[in-house]
Design goal:
There is one protein chain. 37% of the residues lie in helices and 18% in strands. β8 (178-182), α7 and β9 form a beta-alpha-beta unit. The protein starts with a strand and ends with a strand. The strands form two sheets. Strands 1-2-6-5-4-3-7-8-9 form a nine-stranded mixed sheet, with helices on both faces. A three-stranded antiparallel sheet has the order 10-12-11, with helices on both faces. It folds into two domains: 5-215, Rossmann fold, CATH 3.40.50.450; 223-286, Arc Repressor Mutant, subunit A (Orthogonal Bundle). It has 288 residues and is of the alpha/beta class. α2 (52-67) runs parallel beside α3 (80-90) and α5 packs across α6.
């Protein structure tokens, strides 16, 4: 891994968008590649405990956005943050993680490998705290202003009414940045915050195009990105699987009318070939 760099607010390389917020950090510690002006920077935040719906939406949306040249900025937390970073990397895009601890005290430690991959593939880890600063609860709301400040817009995917993700959204609103929200079921706790944001004027997002048009980017999928089956079983499953809605293996078996063993073996091969994404607990989505 590269060495940690210190950037002060008076340095030429200090990020332009971050410098414009009301309380920019006086110094940043950076591991990896942080540009003064990132390409199409978008904050993606949400709950640490996403549903299968939230996981599927986050992965498919972010992967397509990153493939279209959006730089994904998030907080390396469990849940939506981690999924957003992973989806960006899977799309061979750039992603930046803003930490609520020093860069030598990675938190959460479960994402150590993910953090290494972010840096190793051209992204960056960023913190306003000196490298050996341990995590503390008050530091995370403070770091959220940096996530919003580095970004041209903030996208919230699944957040209850009391969520740190909403802090990021309100920082963005206060800075005059665009706020976007993925709507959810009205009777689900994880949808309370996101649905309220839409009531307050956030732009609802139901497809990648809703985000891409803010950045003025091309939205048409390249023909080469269409997944092609390598077997009759794959052809059947591809007609059922979707990129924005997870489906359980039992449902796949029921709808495909294939033997359970055939479904499982085919899903394994498709996952190895990165045609699908395994969300855990038997749920799958298309890997577009």
């Amino acid at each position: 891994m590269s060495s940690i760099k210190k950037i002060t607010i008076n340095d030429e390389s200090y990020p332009t968008l971050l410098k414009q917020i009301f309380t920019p950090p006086k110094e940043l510690y950076v591991l990896g590649n942080l540009e003064k002006e990132e390409k199409n920077p978008l904050a993606v935040v949400g709950t640490r405990l996403p549903s299968s719906y939230g996981k599927a939406i986050c992965y498919s949306l972010v992967k397509e956005l990153a493939a279209r040249g959006i730089t994904i900025i998030s907080g390396l937390a469990k849940g939506i943050d981690g999924i957003a970073h992973e989806a960006a990397l899977d799309a061979h895009g750039k992603t930046i993680a803003v930490l609520g601890s020093g860069l030598n005290v990675l938190y959460p430690s479960i994402h150590k490998k993910l953090a290494e991959e972010i840096v190793g593939r051209g992204g960056a880890l960023v913190s306003e705290y000196p490298p050996d600063t341990p995590p503390d609860h008050w530091q995370f709301p403070a770091r959220n202003r940096i996530i919003a400040g580095l970004s041209q817009a903030t996208l919230v995917i699944e957040a209850p009414k009391k969520s740190g993700a909403l802090i990021t959204a309100f920082f963005a609103l206060n800075e005059g940045r665009e706020v976007l929200s993925v709507p959810g079921e009205i009777n689900k706790e994880n949808s309370g915050g996101t649905n309220n944001l839409i009531k307050l004027g956030a732009k609802p997002v139901t497809q990648a195009q809703d985000v891409l048009e803010i950045f003025g980017l091309e939205t048409k999928l390249d023909q080469k990105e269409i997944i092609k089956p390598d077997s009759k079983e794959e052809e059947i499953l591809l007609k059922i699987l979707k990129p924005d809605e997870s489906i359980h293996v039992d449902k796949l078996t029921e709808l495909s009318k294939l033997l359970p063993s055939a479904v499982l073996s085919t899903l394994t091969v498709m996952e190895i070939n990165k045609k699908i994404k395994n969300l855990g607990q038997g749920f799958y989505i298309l890997n577009l």
